[in-house]
Amino acid sequence: LEGRTSTSLPMPVYEVMPMGTIVVSITVDRQGRVVLARAGARGTTNTDTELHRQAEAAALRARFEPNFDAPVEQRGTITYHFIRQN
Questions:
Q1: Which residue from 11, 23, 64, 79 has the highest number of Cβ atoms inside 10 Å of its Cβ?
Q2: How far apart are CA 22 and CA 35, in angstroms?
């Protein structure tokens, strides 16, 4: 997101074994809230639906600095790297 810094990037809940990268396309409003999150953007390496669901849920909890001069909606991505937790 051009000109915006994250203020909170929660980690996904990760209780499954698949590994990989999930790229989530996000839309952020002027208040810095993520209003839309869709997993599977370019760079995603795993098609596991549970990983996608967890990544989307975490992205929806993310927050960015408010910017009332920004477009009504700004688009960007958040990338999550899921690794095996042994």
A1: 64
A2: 18
